[in-house]
Amino acid sequence: MATLLLEMNNTTDLQISQRGIDMPASPIRKLAPLAYAAEDKGVKIYRLNIGQPDLPTPQKALDALKHVDRTTLEYSPSQGYRSLRKALVNYYDRYQIKLSADDIIITCGGSEAVLFAFMSCLNPGDEIIVPEPAYANYMAFAVSAGAVIRTVTTTIEEGFCLPKVEKFEELINERTKAILICNPNNPTGYLYTQKEMNQIRDLVKKHNLYLFSDEVYREFIYTGSPYISAMHLEGIEQNVVLIDSVSKRYSECGIRIGALITKNEAVRRIVMKFCQARLSPPLIGQIVAEASIEGTEAYSREVYEEYLERRKCLIDGVNKIPGCYTPIPMGAFYTVAKLPVEDTEKFCAWCLSDFRWKDELTPKTTMFSGSEMECAGETIMMAPASGFYTTPGVGNDQVRLAYVLCKKDLQRALFLLEKALEEYNSK
């Protein structure tokens, strides 16, 4: 028995899965240990690294949470409550997206919707074409499904507009099964034009591909150009799988409610197998999400106006810092900025581990883990943009910034960024 226990405790010969090794670390969260260590020492951090809005959740949704009157918190149907799916039908109708409740499957956040779409539509070795920079977790979900991401690179100099169709054609082969877009885009804030969406439609139709379309930021479009959903494209209705989430538009990231939407009944039938395997989406989250959809139009207008102001504050501020540049994002609440450093991953880590700023405006105290402590200085947290590219060496001088803080905090973060760059480059 002692020998058996010894062998069980000796893990030196155990192998980690290749899938786990291939899984990319999140560029958004990989620096979190440095942030926690800094906060533990009393450093105040302005977090521009993650799309976690600081705006309140709709009061109607909070009231629904407070007044849950169930005596048992039961499993919900694997596809989600029909009442929520019917409410979403009305929501999408506002955007001229015509659906039935059966077209909608509720998921544990938009992330699960992407994963289930990949698992249901792709075989190991199948390839997905994705414009980069792209939301980093797409790569992680592809690894989970055994699929391969092939990227067409967009450039900051061209405002991250879609490359010409020839760039897509160069990548298409017998293993190509899908194109994935995010519109409006995370991390760039780019909004695809009608011409670009038609280009994608024609590729999908010509090569009989799936079109995975992540549209969680449709509420945040800051231009007169129309929002073109993949669901608006004629002739590829059976090819489209739309990804959605309530996390951003209602500041409800923690309730983990998303949706996978498709008119392709065969795809829905397979997705349901994965839904049944994970049993059900969150009960409480669905209650909160359903309460958020109707009667919150005034809330949505106020949130939209706030993000307009924040966008102007951040973009103007970044472009005033010597050596920095960012195009104007047309949607979402992110931008990718070029900084005057060779390696933003090292710079972002240094900001958390070494840079500390104190002046007359530095708060006397700060909060960490619910406790107030003396402030040891201020710094900024950003997401290195290289993690949003798969092409080696691309994006090393860029960061993704999320303008999810109030204007006062954004202005302070911009000040800290300028001071950090001055100190970093002086060394």
Describe this structure in words.
The chain is α/β, with parallel strands linked by helices. The protein is 38% helix and 15% strand. The protein contains 14 helices and 14 strands. It has helices at 2-9, 18-22, 32-40, 59-66, 82-93, 109-121, 137-145, 165-171, 194-207, 265-277, 283-293, 297-320, 344-353, 407-426, and strands at 44-47, 104-107, 127-132, 148-153, 176-182, 210-214, 240-245, 258-261, 334-338, 365-368, 371-374, 378-381, 383-384, 398-402. The strands form four sheets. The protein has a seven-stranded mixed beta sheet with strand order 2-8-7-6-5-3-4, with helices on both faces. Strands 9-14-13 form a three-stranded antiparallel beta sheet. α5 packs parallel to α11, α6 runs parallel beside α7 (137-145) and α12 runs parallel beside α14 (407-426). The protein is globular, with a radius of gyration of 22 Å. The N and C termini lie far apart (59 Å). The model is unreliable at 4-8 (pLDDT under 50).
Short note summarizing the structure:
This protein is about 40% helix and about 15% strand. With about 425 residues, it is an alpha/beta fold.
Proportion of helical residues:
25-40%
* Strand numbers in spatial order across the main sheet: 2-8-7-6-5-3-4
> What structural class do the secondary elements suggest?
alpha/beta
Quaternary structure classification: single chain
Put simply, the count of helices is 14
